Amino acid sequence: MLDMNPIYERSRTAIVRPARSGDGEAVRAIRNHAVEHSTALWTHAVQSPAQGTAWLAAHLERGSAFVAEVGGEVAGFAVYGPWRELDGYRHTVEDSVYVSEDRQGLGIGSALLAALIASAREAGHHVMIAGIEAGNSGSIRLHERFGFHHAGTVREVGTKFGRWLDLTIMRLPLS
Hints:
Elements: E1 9-10, E2 15-18, H1 24-37, H2 49-62, E3 65-70, E4 73-82, E5 92-99, H3 108-122, E6 127-133, H4 137-145, E7 149-160, E8 163-173
């Protein structure tokens, strides 16, 4: 069980805490910005308010969602969830970390990832997977700093903005 202390992790500029339902609109805005402007999420479909609420609610129920606050405003979020739906994969989770474009480079992603890893360990998960667009060197470096190892790159398995995308898989043992 997570420590009920509202401050889970700190960066130089942010406080990371478990997400709450009231964070939904800020989280949705950050996520939708990534959908519209990056290859971090391989979809063109932005979340509606109802979809964003349902998506966050599933993570809140698992206790697998965190936000980073700067000056009382949500500047980033991170979640982990099932890597695959089949029960044989139940001990493996996949992480997602997103920081507002104007708050990147301040250590917020590191603080969020630290909170996710600690939470997943406390929950008894065995491995955390990161699926990263192969050209996203910042995310790859972030994960490497936390001990993730390159498990492979699958070529041209996704498409966005009119081009094929490669998926780098990274792996971190949790137990």
